[in-house]
């Protein structure tokens, strides 16, 4: 198991804590410049933080307190660089063989290249390979090291869309086939969601939240995480305890806004200012008022058609908040939804996630 | 044609390149990768021989290394070495004035190697020394050859410093360029022409080699 708990103030501020079990794929997700790559470099030994510990198994690779700082050569790490960093003067076989410590390095390299579908290309130099092929050579080189941890730094950013999908499949297969901790750095949330067992949301060097993609996306820990994971329906409000046990009331927006029926887990104080989110799958659109709680009358203000899908903006009749939802273009074409027309939105209390409005600092 | 002078010139050029190469490689790699604040100062100092008149460099070497100077006296007493009006002195001066010709192309070559390629080698388990031998040196190879060829050609053509430091001693310090000057002074234009032509041919060959090798740079294959 890889465990990381590090801190530094400069050159890039870091305050990170996460781990990755063998056979697990953890994605570090965050905007460009959030320190994800620096985290990866710290794990690989290419950068040293000022405080903390990085361990693999029962061995410390870095331990500021104990003065342990293993160089990259002494950490068994396979690292795929963002632009691959292949050795331009060597052919694919020698690029891979150089990282193998087996007596039969060339044979080992040839076997890895075959496994990654590069049969017949072992004599080519990087400049004679496509982006996707270069990526596979880089992956073969990382595996040739027989690593204890596999690190992937934005490995798909430099390949085109069709090659990317093929590579996703291969990474998924590799992930099933080798029981290694794999850490993937990406700014693409969609990619992270598709590939990772667990997401670690990173912003300005801080690990804000970690959990399964479903957890993070439906229950962001705070407003910044909600923003980073691209939850569109993200609102402010005021929370109040209700008369009925287990249920509370949420005022949508400013005073006088709609009142919603919400679960009360007794974690939020009465009259607390809150942020709240609701994933799109928990909002249903009706032409007639449906039965049940949290029904709001709204007007379809705008529909932006993007192929089969239309991005629809609904304006609440009461309070004026806007809700964004994807609807099928067919619904618009059949006249089920008309721009300017009236609809009823129902918000499922089960999907409604309320967060206290706290700053971005992690708990110390 | 003064064959002794031609042989001496070739010997001086070859030895200068040989002595300078390891020193320049170390310096160039440091300059290409270091973030030290002393770097601009050292880079400027290295370029000085290109700008200063040869007489200035010759003057400092003569006064700094001559028998009357403390360094010259110490060398003469302890190592039996005389660095003015001798081949050793000529070699020393030649190494010094050729620094920019060797360091510049090498530094450019080392700087052109992306930092991530070096790091990829370390992460692949290669020691710093193995990374240098297997990755950096092959990638910087065009710069190494360019540096050697430029140093060789420049040493063949050097006149001012050689005359100041070495004088004109046949078989010891009289190089081809000095011999040409000598022949012209003696109105022996035929010999001067022969030797001039030889210098032109050798220099052209060395520079042609530099350009030919620059076209085969693996870092430019994209």
What's this, in brief?
The complex is a heterodimer of chains A (364) and B (222). Chain A contains nine helices and 21 strands.
Produce the secondary structure layout.
The complex is a heterodimer of chains A (364) and B (222).
Chain A (H helix, E strand, L loop, with lengths): L1 E7 L5 E7 L4 E5 L6 H9 L6 E6 L2 E5 L4 E2 L7 E4 L11 H6 L7 H11 L15 H14 L4 E5 L7 H17 L4 E5 L2 H7 L2 E6 L2 E6 L1 H6 L4 H6 L5 E8 L5 E6 L6 E5 L8 E6 L5 E4 L8 E12 L2 E8 L5 E7 H5 L8 E6 L5 E4 L8
Parallel strand pairs in A: 3-9, 3-10, 7-8, 8-9
Antiparallel strand pairs in A: 1-2, 1-4, 4-5, 5-6, 10-11, 12-13, 12-15, 13-14, 15-21, 16-20, 17-18, 17-20, 18-19
Helix pairs in contact in A: 3-4
Chain B lengths: L2 H31 L5 H13 L2 H12 L4 H9 L8 H26 L2 H9 L4 H30 L2 H7 L9 H10 L3 H26 L8
Number of helices of chain A: 9
Strand content of chain A: 25-35%
Instruction: Work out the number of β strands of chain B.
Output: 0
Low-pLDDT stretches of chain A are 359-364
Order of helices and strands of chain B: HHHHHHHHHH
Helix content of chain B: over 70%
How many domains in all of chain B?
1
């Amino acid at each position: 198991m890889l465990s990381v708990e590090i801190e530094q103030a400069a050159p890039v501020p870091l305050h990170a804590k996460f781990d990755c079990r063998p056979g697990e794929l953890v994605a570090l997700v965050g905007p460009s410049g959030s320190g994800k790559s620096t985290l990866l470099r710290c794990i690989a030994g290419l950068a040293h933080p000022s405080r903390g510990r990085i361990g693999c198994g029962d061995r410390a690779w870095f331990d500021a307190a104990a003065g342990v700082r293993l160089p990259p050569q002494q950490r068994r790490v396979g690292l795929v660089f963002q632009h691959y960093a292949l050795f331009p003067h060597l052919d694919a076989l020698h690029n891979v063989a150089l990282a193998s410590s087996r007596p039969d390095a060339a044979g080992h390299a040839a076997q890895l290249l075959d496994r990654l579908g590069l049969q017949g290309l072992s004599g080519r130099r990087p400049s004679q390979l496509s982006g996707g092929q270069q990526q596979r050579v880089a992956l073969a080189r990382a595996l040739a090291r027989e690593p204890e941890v596999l690190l992937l730094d934005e490995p798909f950013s430099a390949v085109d869309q069709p090659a990317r999908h093929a590579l996703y499949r291969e990474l998924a297969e590799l992930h099933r086939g080798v029981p290694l901790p794999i850490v993937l750095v990406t700014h693409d949330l969609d990619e992270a969601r598709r590939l990772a067992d667990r997401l670690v949301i990173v912003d300005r060097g801080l690990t804000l939240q970690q959990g399964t993609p479903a957890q993070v996306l439906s229950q962001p820990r705070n407003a910044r995480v909600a923003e980073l994971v691209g939850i569109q329906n993200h609102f402010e409000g005021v929370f109040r305890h209700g008369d009925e046990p287990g249920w509370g009331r949420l005022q949508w927006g400013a005073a006088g806004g709609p009142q919603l029926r919400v679960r009360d887990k007794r974690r939020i104080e009465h009259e607390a200012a809150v942020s709240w989110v609701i994933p799109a799958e928990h909002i249903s659109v009706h032409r007639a008022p449906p039965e049940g709680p949290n029904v709001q009358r709204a007007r379809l203000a705008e529909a932006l058609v993007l192929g089969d899908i239309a991005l629809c903006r609904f304006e609440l009749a009461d309070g004026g908040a806007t809700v964004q939802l994807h609807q099928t273009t067919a619904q618009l074409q059949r006249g089920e939804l008309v721009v300017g027309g009236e609809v009823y939105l129902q918000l499922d209390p089960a999907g409604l996630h309320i967060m206290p409005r706290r700053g971005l600092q992690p708990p110390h | 044609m003064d064959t002794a002078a031609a042989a001496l010139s070739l010997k001086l050029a070859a030895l200068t390149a040989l002595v300078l190469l390891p020193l320049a490689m170390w310096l160039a790699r440091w300059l290409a990768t270091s973030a030290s604040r002393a770097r601009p100062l050292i880079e400027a100092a290295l370029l000085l021989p290109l700008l200063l008149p040869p007489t200035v460099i010759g003057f400092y070497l003569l006064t700094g290394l001559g028998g009357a100077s403390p360094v010259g006296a110490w060398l003469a007493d302890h190592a039996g070495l005389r660095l003015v009006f001798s081949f050793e002195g000529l070699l020393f001066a030649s190494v010094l004035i050729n620094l920019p010709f060797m360091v510049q192309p090498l530094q450019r070559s080392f700087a052109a190697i992306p930092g991530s390629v070096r790091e990829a080698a370390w992460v692949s388990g290669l020691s710093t020394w193995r990374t240098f031998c297997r990755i950096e040196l092959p990638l910087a190879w065009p710069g190494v050859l360019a540096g050697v060829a430029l140093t060789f050609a420049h040493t063949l053509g050097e006149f001012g410093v050689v005359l100041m430091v070495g004088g004109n001693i046949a078989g010891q310090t009289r190089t081809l360029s000095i011999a040409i000057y000598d022949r012209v002074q003696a109105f022996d234009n035929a010999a001067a022409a022969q030797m001039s032509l030889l210098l032109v041919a050798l220099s052209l060959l060395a520079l042609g080699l530099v350009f030919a090798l620059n076209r085969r740079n693996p870092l430019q294959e994209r």
